[in-house]
Amino acid sequence: MATVDTLAPREPRTRGRRTPATRGPGSRRSAGDWAVLAVAVVIGLFIAFPFLLILVNSFKSPAEYASSGPLALPTEIYTDGIAAFWERVNFPEKVWNSVLISGTVAVLAVLLSMFNAFALGIGRIRGRTWIVVLILLANMLPQEVLLYPLYFMFRETPLYDNVWSVIIIFTVIQTAFGTYLLASVYSTFPKELLEAASLDGAGRWRTLWRVVYPISRPTLSVLLIFFFIWTWNEFLIPLTFLVSNANQTVPVAITVLQGDRLMDVTTTSASALLGLIPTLIFFLIFQRTLTRGITAGAVK
Known about the structure:
Elements lengths: L30 H28 L3 H7 L11 H10 L1 H32 L5 H13 L2 H13 L7 H24 L4 H9 L4 H29 L3 H6 L8 H5 L10 H21 L1 H9 L5
Helix pairs in contact: 1-12, 3-4, 3-12, 4-7, 4-9, 5-7, 7-9, 9-13
């Protein structure tokens, strides 16, 4: 009995060939790739130039700055400006005030934003649209508009010239932005997960912490980092509400070096460098968290 072999159709041989869509590490770049890279390098240099200028002038003596200008490299390392600013403003105390205010505001604002957004985006409370519109309008108000009524309000309370006055103000301001952002995110939350949690007997509180929070944790981490940095860099409200030297923050402490007609440029550069280092360290520590949070919604 004869047997017939059934052969599957041969696939085209692609060994050694590279499809146009794939690119290895040794492949050549196109002219467009080099143009994009050149533009990115130029933009990076423009961004890094002010920081390099501060770094150069921080270690330059006033006499050398007057003779060579701000762009010349220092001939010797001059650290008296850093030491003078450190001792004059009690820099560790100012760093602690900024860390306390920024950290507390970031944590409280993220928690309140999550609670508000859960009620608006998932709870679907009545008047949700008008509440979101009011929050959006509150975000559009400049701080100068709020400064006058807040000043007279806190003057009548024991919280004036207290770090908690600034913490309360910035917590409300950052919560308004966080609520508006998270409410839009939670409004598109998968209903299947919420229905499954409800069938398992989970209440709203358990649903929030066991279902909503783990999924939205990357977004909350990004908000936490941004709230910390934004609060750290604030100047006008801390300057108005923290009048005593012991309660001032780092941005406010830098202004003590500037007079009406005279300014020590090298010491001011040293103070700006010292004020930049804590936020730079904070950013480097949470850089991967920030990157994962930003790209979390891009890949499912």
